[in-house]
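Customer ticket, subject: "Can you confirm the structure for Glycosyltransferase involved in cell wall bisynthesis?"

Message body: Hello, I'm evaluating your service for our small team and ran a test protein. I'd like someone to confirm that this is what the system normally returns, since I don't have a reference to compare against.
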Amino acid sequence: MKILIVAGDSPYPANHGGRVDIFERLKVISKTYGRENIDIIITGNELTTETNKELKKYCHGILVSPRNTGISATLSLTPFQGKSRASLKDLTPLRDQYDIMILEGDYVFPILDNPRINCKTPLLRSHNIESKYFYNLFKADTTWRKIFYLSESIKFYIQEKRETYKNIKKLYISKKENQIHGNKEYWLPTPVDVDGILERTTFPQGEDVLYIGSLFMPNNIFGLRWYLEKVHPTIESSLPNYRLHIAGNTRDHEITWLKNYKNIEIYPNASDEMLESLYNKCSLFVSPIFHGAGVKIKNINALASGIPVITTTVGNEGTGLSPKHHIFISDTPENFINTTIRLLTQKQEAYQHLQAAQNFIKEHYAAQRISHYIEQTTSSKA
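Agent reply: Thanks for trying us out. I re-ran your input and got the following:
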């Protein structure tokens, strides 16, 4: 089986949720169908030597399609994310025919207009309902970018109504978004290496709490500010050994505002080794999210890394995890404060939920299930 993967960004380094999802799936598909049968098209800048070397472990051919991020792409009636990747329409593929082409998100939709691509079954990996995602960014942002986010939301909403979009088979990362569409498509959770799940036999003794998120995204900044202003001070005064650890990719954005808060440690652009150390050190993972779409992969990663999670209703959307058995949900400052203090002082409850959550992840998120979903999708009728 010959498979073409089309990604809007390089999946490596896998330093945020979307890249993690793509890269982990690439590795599993390569192992299942053979590296020699996998090609990938990436939009963006030329790849670094390190990135090219890493991707070559899992795919045979790599093509880079340049992006046009100029003003003309912004002014188009097509979403900027798609218009800036319009060069996909003219790319010459590495093979005459593919059995499957996986579009990694709506951003790479222009590839469907490429007459040179001969593919039996195109599949859309739906990372988000993009119109909803950009509308939530519009609500969360407080800068001039609000106008851009609202514009993209409207443009994606129009695109989602077109027949081409409606007719392509979809693999939803979010169980909720699949249910919104009447379960007519397929729920394909982000792949997790179940053999690598950390099953704790002892609990960290301290009162350290971990937050991980891209520190340049307005929805993450909104949630983190909410926590620091409405939750953090009360926990500080209640638990003398409490400490909040904040890690995330900054993309060179300014984060000096975080220095206004006490009892925090900041790890910008933390390495995998540093993140592993933080997972082992901290007793609880906090994920205050109020605007978003798709699935918050960082919550799944935290659970798989052996740390209980407290999040919001929005933060848990689409995961399939039960608030009563797997994960803790708090939508108000008072509830978030009380739950955090309780879990830091009564860790047995937290880790009972963690064990149940890890069992759920093993059943539903196992990386090996990807080939089953692909074959089920390609063998069924549209």
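A couple of notes from the result: The CA atoms of residues 236 and 262 lie 9 Å apart. The domain at 3-127+168-190+366-379 is CATH 3.40.50 (Rossmann fold). Feel free to reply with more questions.
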